[in-house]
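Researcher: Good morning. I'm working through a list of sequences from a screen, and I'd like to move beyond sequence-only analysis. For each chain I'm collecting a predicted structure so we can compare shapes side by side. This is the next one on the list. No need for commentary yet; just the structure.
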Amino acid sequence: MGKIVIAIDGYSGCGKSSTAKAVAKDLGYTYIDSGAMYRAVTLHFLNNLVTLSNPKEIEKALKSLEISFHINPDSGKQETYLNGLNVEEEIRKMKISSKVSEVAAVKEVRKELVAQQQRLGKNKAVVMDGRDIGSVVFPSAELKVFMSADLLTRAGRRQQELQEKGEIVDLEEIKNNLSERDRIDSSRKESPLIKVSDAIEIDTSNLTFKDQVAQIVNKAKQIIEKEKSYAGNHR
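Model: Good morning. Structure tokens for this chain:
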């Protein structure tokens, strides 16, 4: 009782993952990084030289795929593991960013990961972010959020993230990468990026990180209270 699913969708670089992590921490919920899952598949495909137009190669690679999340005891942060190896740093690199939207557009990849994500969220009390969480993975999520921000703001944030990890990338290259990812994500046949009608939209261009987290947490708490009240009245 009082547990809900929070689905956060939106464009690349508008702070979905960091916001979702903070919201989950505030509510004591589990955070599931669907973007990291697609990035891990992309790394797996690159490592295995998978041709995206070859269904047999895709099927074979997906059979040898195992993605899991573990908390780093030193940092307290959640990290992504691919077939038992910590790939958290590797999957955040530009070489993965430049390929992930193409891999995520593959029907078989989406089918496999959506099934995994739905299993992870079946007991509720989860926050998941991505491109199709409110539309496909959890269409009945109690709270759906669509995050956006202007392209220059998003590129600046992504550049800072990369710099903090020691990767120096030109701002124009990042803008082009984000723009291309937006195009692929919004126009793909399988689970395109859309804002569902019952999602609340948050433009983070001029919001502080604290404010965007607070907006979602407050909305979630209102819904949780409503759920508890409804359950109490229908005993």
